[in-house]
Every structure is written in C-alpha cells, then in structure tokens.
Design goal:
The structure is a homotetramer. By secondary structure, chain A is mainly α. Chain A is built from nine helices and no strands. Chain B binds a DNA duplex through helix 1 and helix 3.
DNA sequence: CATGAATGAGTATTCATTCAT
DNA sequence: AATGAATGAATACTCATTCAT
C-alpha cells in the first residue's frame, strides 16, 4: 500500500503542533481540571512560546474546542476500529464494557476530560456544540444495544433502554471521576450493571 | 416548649450574614461553577461590600468551606428529620428515592454544588475533609439499605450492595449534572434503578 | 507627702489606655518596624477593639505621634532624674555612656523606635516636629559635655564637639540597629569612643 | 581590546529594562523608603505597565533583591576600579573617605538605600543574604585598613580596629540618613574621625 | 513560524477609618 | 466608652491576548 504524502508538509507540521497542544492541554486538564488550565502551562509543556501557541490556536475557547475535537477523534476511532455487527447485542454490550475497562483503567484521562468538557458544555454553547454530539452518539449506541438485547431476549423485558443507558453512562463517568480507581472496583461495578439489565435466570426448567 | 432567645443578637446577625453569603455563593456555583465563583459577585448579590465579605469570611478557601458546611447542614437535616427505622429496607429505599426526587427537581442546586465540591475535593485536601464525609455517609446509608433489602428478600440475592450504591449515587449525580432536568426523565431513571435491584418476579409461584 | 487625686478618674483611665496603646505600638515597632505597624495588632495586644483604639487615638498619624510623645516622656525622665551638674564634664560623659549601656542592652527597643521615628521624620513634618526636638536636645547635651570636656582639658584640644557629637550619636544608634547586640561589643565601642575623644597621654609627663 | 557584542540584542534590552526598574525603585526608596515602594509607582516611572513590570521582575521580593543586586554591583565597581595596594594604609583610608565624600554628597541615595536594605535585612532572610555580605565586605576592608594603619604607626597603638570600623560605618550611614546633608558638615565629620584614629602628634622635643 | 515584551481587565486580600448601637 | 459591622481605596499579582521584530 502506497503511503500518501501529506497534502503539504507545512500543513502537516502545523497539525502536529496542534495535536501536541491538544495533548498537553488534556494532560493539564487531568491534573488540574479545566479550571486550572493555563495557556502558559500548555506552551511550556509543548516547548513553545505562548505567542506561538496563540498563533496555532487563537483563543482559549478555540483551545478547549481543540481538546474536544481531539477527544472526539480518539473516541470515534475506537468505535470505528471494531466492526462487531455480526455479534448478538448482549455480546457487543459486553465488549463495550471491555472497552470501558481499558478506557477507565488505562486511559482514565480520556473520560475525565470528557466529563470536564460536558460540565463546561452546560454553560458554554460552543462547547456544547463540540462535545454533546459525542455524548449523544455514545448514548444512542447504548440505547440501541440495550433495545436489541431486549428484543433478543438477553435483557429484561421490562428494561427501559433510555434510562438504562443513562445509568450506565453515569456509572462509567462517576467511576472515572473517582480518585481511587482500581480494577476490582470496576469489575464489581460492571458485574452489577450486567446483572441489573439481564433477564433473570428462569428458575423453573424452561 | 420555650423558644430560647439567641445567645446574642449580634451573633445572630453575623450568622445571618454568613448564611446569606453561603446562599449567594451556592447560587453562583450553580450558575457558573466553582470556577466562576468571584468574591465580588457574592458580595454584590448579598448587597455588601467586598471588604465586608472578607470580614465575615476571611478567605476564599474559608468561603468554599462555608458552602460545604451549609450543604452538610442541609443534607443532615433532611436525613435527621424523618425517622423511618420501623419500615422495611425496600420501603425506606423507596422513600429515599422520593427524597432524591424532591432534591433533584426542586432544589437541583444542592446536588450540583455537592457534585462540584466533590470534584474540587480531588485536588484540595481541606475540601476533601469537608465534603467527603458527607459522600461516605450517603454511600453507607445506601449500602446498608441495599444489604438489608437483600436480607429481607426484597432485592436480588446476587446484588452487590457496594456496587449498586455506586450506581445509584452516580445516577443521581449524573441526573443533576444534566442540563435538561425533568420529572419524567427522573421517574424513568428511578423506575429502572428499582427494577435493577429488586428480586425478579417469581414467574412460577404466582 | 500627700497623694494628689487624679484630676478626674475618667481622664486618668483614658490616659492609661493611651499609655497602654503607646506601649503596645512600641513593642510592635520593635518587632516589625513602623512599616509593620497595624492598628488592629495594637488593639489586639491592648485587648480592645479597633474602633475603641480609634476612639482614643483618632488616626494612625496621631498614634505615631503618641508613640513619639511616650518616647520623649521616657527620654526626658531619664535625663531629669539625675542631676550631675557638680561633676566634671568628662565624668558626666562617662555616666552618659553608662546610661546608654543600660538603654542599649536592657531596653534596646527605646533606641530602635527612636531611630525608626527619626527615619520617618525625614518625610513627615508632624513626626519631625514631635521627634526632632529630642534629637536636638540629646545632641546639644553631648556638644555641651564635649565642649566643657575640652575646656577642662580632659578631651583633645582639637576636638570638634559638633562632629564628635554626631559620631557618638551615630555610633549609639548604629549599635542599636544592629541585630546582634551584646555587652562586649558595646563596651569595646564605648571604649573606642572614649579613647577617640580624650586627650592623649602626655608621653613625657609619666 | 575588542568590544564583545552583546550575547543577544533582546537579552540586552531586557537587561536594560531591569536596570531601569532597579533605578526607578531606588529613586522611590530614597523618596519614600522601602515602606513607600509601590510596584505601580515604579512602573509609572519607567513608563511601562504594571504587568510588564511583573514580567521582568516577578515579585516584589525579587524586585527588592534586584535593587540590592544593583547596589552591590555599583558598590563593588567602585572598590575594584582603583587598585591602591601600593599606598600606605592611612593614605588608602584617606582615599576611602574621599570616596565616601563623593558617595555621600553626590550620590546620597546609594547609602540611603543601602541603609534601608540593611534595616529590612533584620526581618527578611533573603534580604539579609543579599545585602549583609556587602556590609561585611565594607566592614572588613575598614578593619584591615585600620589594623595596617596601626602596624604602620599611623594610627593610635591602642586603636581597636573592630570598634573603630563600627564607628566609621555608623557615622557614614548616620550622615547619609540625615536630611540636611552638606559638604561642610561632612568634612568636619571626617576630620574628626581622622583625628580620632590617628596617633597623636609626638611632642618630639619635650 | 517563532518569540520576547507588553498590556488591560481582572482578582483576592489588606487596612485605616467610620458608623450604628 | 466600647464594639461588631461596614467600607473605599489600595495593593501585589495573574492571565489571555497582542504586537513588533
């Protein structure tokens, strides 16, 4: 397969800078929250001047949107990578939990930043425009999986997919917001979520 | 019962001021987050000078602790007011959900501020000391209710009370963080939580 | 001897308060300099409210003048207490050094506050009016003693009393400004000053 | 000898700014004392924004250290410029007095600022670290000159070099602290100091 | 592209002083 | 006399943003 040359080396270099800036910003958000995000700190971490930072990203607002964009890219990537359409919904949901596990335990920053941006979206329209689609996308995916799972008979017939999706999302976000993250707690949490939605064992012999 | 006069009218007036300050601060936190909290704004809202604000609450740190304290007072009050020890656990849990309903829909600020302070506690030891006990108290209450509910046979035998408590708390907080709060969404959420924990209908024994 | 009753008990109590305020202010000046003098700190040390302090001493300027006045009173007292007119000048000068010794080693605060106020007098006319007379009085006393000492043949014939007075005063103040005050250093300093002014031993007349 | 170009024009410009800031700060200290030093005033005098001032000198503490550094540079310069090792000690001491004369009468601010910083060093460790070495250096130079002068027979055999150095320093500082500086008073002061230390005329023929 | 320097609009906090009681 | 509360005017310091080079 032939490597396509970048459209323009300059453009590519510039994109690298923006990526580096987004990464640095995300690290700082994980450490200090959006509240503690300072353009100077980002520039320092990237190894450039503040003015240079502003050359690449004109305002702080644009910067936070860049972070949102970088998050979206990563988020979408993960979901696109793995076509699982052929599997039953319940198994796909289990794989989602596996993905969450990786996200929550190995890259907890992703969810934390996501959660911070959602928070910010409440008061900032542009942030809302950048981040809420992701949330809706995630939510819809869960709703669809749950609905299918109900149809397939894997989940409780009286399951409310919308409400259950909310519960799952809140639980995932709540877990990542927790300072003491450990795999055991995560597994117990997911186990409980799975028991909460699945159809109870049919005790009598069916 | 005889009403005790306040220890001193001045002391009472001062406490009123502090209460007014805490209230104003909470309003602003609801509107703009802890990040957007400005001493000047609080003073304006209370109708006093910034210096007067600092007379009553010396530093911003103390101010946020005052908010935590005011939250705790309100939180504890609600739990102390209603002795329900005589009821079975599942019914008490249902009443908790009723309380949450009131909190989430009529005084959504309480949970929002609570959530903001928990967030802040992650990086601020003094805040942690002020707010985390509340969180632990709340969590323990849920864990106890769920455990009893399992013992009483109202909840699933395979329920993990710790994990379920986490799920319930996250769901409540997640709901309040949501910008579009409405009673219908809340009721569906709680309905799903209740179905998630309760023992499934015994199909054969009817 | 009959104790005169105070002109009015109220007036006396008020004067006591002012004296206590002056004393507290002087202590703080010794510790932190005039720069670090805060009305609140003085009030705290006296055990009264700031507003009460302002009742007794209306402004900070008046407060510093009060300190100057208290210093003057103490200073004058010391000089009035001991009539030594009958002694030769050189002996009276030696007694002055003894007085300085006591002042410098046992009550170093007096000279320190004095020095601080002189400094302040450079930019503050009212302070100048309150404190410079003391300085001039002290200086004149030294000039007179030195002149007489020269006349009496105890001091060098080529001694310049004015310049020597300046040297002695500067040395005393300089010593008190020094953080590491000890009696040995003081004695060596005074010894050198005495050798500096006295008529050298007549080598032949042994 | 080849003039080295400045390492970088920007660096040079920045150093100029810092020098201008130090100069302005020193002027204000002369006028109002360290107590009266305001960042805003310095910025105004230099003709820059307060924020720009903080860009070059981050804190007020650093600013005062900058002043100390600028003083030290000037102080050391004067002492390095003139190698006089070949002269007898008494003549070198006389030249010191000439230097003092210039300092006291033409650049009185230097000594005044020096004196203010020494004062401040009493309560501020970092200031002590920056300014006391200068004082010790000055003092040691005087002690050495006086000791040599005694050895050379120019000064009194019973001279205590340590005490005499203290007297000379105090006199110089005291003179500069005086608001009414004039050359006549200075000359009389130095004359008296010289007579105070030198060996009295040997009445040879008696 | 990059940077050092500059800046306006904040931001919490301090302090002498005043006022009502 | 005494005090708790209130306040205006400062004060050092911060930060996103701009500009000249």
């Amino acid at each position: 397969m032939i490597e396509l040359p970048p459209l323009s080396p300059k453009r590519a270099a510039s994109d690298d800078r923006r990526a580096a800036i987004a990464l640095a910003a995300r690290e700082i958000i994980v450490e200090k929250g959006v509240e503690g995000l300072r353009t100077r700190d980002i520039a320092d971490r990237v190894g450039i001047n503040v003015a240079t930072l502003h050359y690449h990203v004109p305002t702080k607002e644009a910067l936070i949107e860049l972070v949102a964009e970088s998050l979206r890219r990563e988020f979408m990537q993960q979901n696109i990578d793995r076509p699982r359409a052929h599997l039953p919904a319940a198994q796909r949901m289990d794989l989602e939990f596996v993905d969450f596990r990786e996200l929550a335990l190995e890259k907890p920053g992703v969810m934390l930043v996501f959660s911070e941006l959602i928070e910010r979206a409440r008061r900032d329209e542009r942030m809302a425009a950048a981040i809420l689609p992701m949330k809706r996308y995630w939510r819809q995916m869960l709703v669809d999986l749950l609905s299918e799972g109900v149809s397939e008979g894997a989940y409780r017939a009286d399951l409310d997919p919308e409400a259950a999706a909310t519960i799952i999302m809140s639980s995932m976000i709540g877990f990542c917001r927790n300072p003491n993250k450990n795999s055991d707690a995560f597994d117990r949490l997911v186990g409980e979520l799975q028991r909460a939605i699945r159809k109870p064992n049919q005790p009598n012999g069916n």
